[in-house]
Amino acid sequence: MYDFTPSRAGEHARRFLGGWQGSLVCDDFAGDKAFFAQGMIEVGCMAHVRCKFVELHLAKKSHIAAAPLALIGQLYDIERELKDKPPATRLAQWQARAAPLAAKLHEWLVLHRIKLPNCTVIAKAIDDSLNRWVALTRYLADPALPIDNNHDEQQIRPWATGRKNWLVAGTQLADQRAPAVMSLINSARMNGHDPYAYLKDILTRLRIHKASRIEELLPHCWQPENATV
Predict the structure, then answer these.
(1) Rounded to the nearest 5°, which phi and psi values hold at 6?
(2) Residues in a beta bridge with 41
(3) Residues 143 and 225 in one domain
(4) Domain that holds residue 14
């Protein structure tokens, strides 16, 4: 589901989620902090941690960043191997294989942080990791949680790219309609439908479909009126 807001302020996400409680996978965005004070469970994104060390290793030519990158890489190797396994299997393997790697990474971060001046970029990257360590490793105890939020990042990437080309949506009302349409399109994909066929069918049927049965046209309930659509 997509939503439009006039800014990135945390109040908009809080309004959108309302009284929902659960585990929220996120990066270290300041606007999310109020969620955790309200009882939501913070789940960190390992990909954001990895990106900071990748930047240091490639752009800053920091050889020290190679060690944490290697350990994080091994965590992702395990993820790729287990992604299609049953939850119980993933949990057991996380505890047996990934948890010791995470502990080794934590030990490395602590030991090297002591040796570094506070003003260095690598020190800041380590601090960011250590400060969110509990959130970053929370997935190891719950097979329902992912190691990162890359999936969601990929779903919003077309919008982040497109806005540079579109420049304007016309009006604020158009801004609000656009994510509603995208929500339908991507929900149709997730439910195995061809988005074009889905939209063509429901737009044809809307004018005669009873409003009291509108939920029948939602992607997870939809059945094409004509199999050849």
Answers:
(1) -75, -10
(2) 23
(3) no
(4) 10-150
